[in-house]
Design brief:
With 254 residues, the protein is mostly helical. It contains twelve helices and two strands; from the N terminus they run ααααααααααααββ. Helix 2 runs parallel beside helix 5 and helix 6 runs antiparallel to helix 7.
């Protein structure tokens, strides 16, 4: 039986989604095709962040899947606005995934897209590892492609943080889940990788190459600076050429 309270909750939810969607979408489209200044763009990002913070406190009222799908579409719109992201970066990427986890933590395809969007585009590999770990508590190994969530997490762990033990565990879990999915070839490869990194911890040279990927992939100054700082921490040397090109030299691994 549908109660008045339930009907009211549903009305609030749907009205909120429609209203915010109508208010935001035209504005983002205007930003994409305009030469709006950075200050105004930053104000729009702050509004978006406020909206995301609001929804973190909002109950699903039985519409979790709908909300997760909606936030995924909002993320695609935000992520795909290259003009705006070149000026403001991708710092909201993790917040979109946090909301998807809140409303539909079994949404496997989202994790596979957000992994690189957070670790590479937003230059937050630690956050990517954390959020994928949260999601894995709710995912079943019998879901399609679920084993890849473990694999993507392992890649971030070994590539960016050099967490050998954590990566080894994630690779072995990816192997176990790949076996359940009857992908025995991938399972074997994951176990071999886990064994290999146990005996050959990832080199500084390869970790510098990972951060160099972030550096070359981003045009947002703040994100590029994070990558440069990490490269220096790992012992890399950075030279700026007269034409503005960046040349990076890696140290010799012991």
């Amino acid at each position: 039986m549908i109660t008045i309270a339930k009907l009211f909750d549903s009305l609030v939810l749907v009205t909120g989604i429609v209203a915010i969607g109508l208010l935001q979408q035209p504005r983002w489209q205007q930003l994409e095709h305009s030469n709006i200044d950075t200050k105004s763009l930053a104000q729009e990002i702050q509004k978006e962040q406020n909206n995301l913070s609001f929804w973190k406190r909002f109950s699903a009222f039985g519409y979790g899947n709908l909300l997760a799908d909606w936030f995924f579409l909002r993320f695609i719109q935000y992520y795909g606005d290259d003009t705006a992201r070149d000026k403001t970066g991708y710092e909201l990427n993790p917040q979109f995934l946090e909301l998807i986890i809140k409303y539909d933590p079994r949404f496997v395809p989202a994790y596979l897209i957000f992994s690189s969007a957070i670790s590479i585009d937003a230059a937050m590999p630690d956050k990517s590892i954390e959020l994928l770990g949260q999601g894995l508590k709710h995912i079943s190994p019998y879901q399609p492609d679920a084993n890849y969530v473990w694999l993507y997490r392992a890649t971030d762990q070994i590539l960016f943080t050099n967490d050998v033990e954590g990566a080894k565990y994630s690779y072995n879990m990816a192997a176990d889940w790949a076996d359940i999915a009857l992908n025995h070839r991938l399972a074997k490869a994951n176990r071999k990788t886990a064994q290999y990194i146990s005996n050959h911890p990832y080199s500084k040279k390869n970790r510098i190459a990972a951060w160099q990927l972030i550096l070359t992939h981003n045009r947002f100054a703040k994100t590029r600076q994070v990558a440069l700082n990490k490269i220096r921490e790992l012992g890399g040397t950075i030279k700026i050429q007269p034409n503005g090109a960046i040349v990076i030299a890696s140290p010799k691994d012991n």
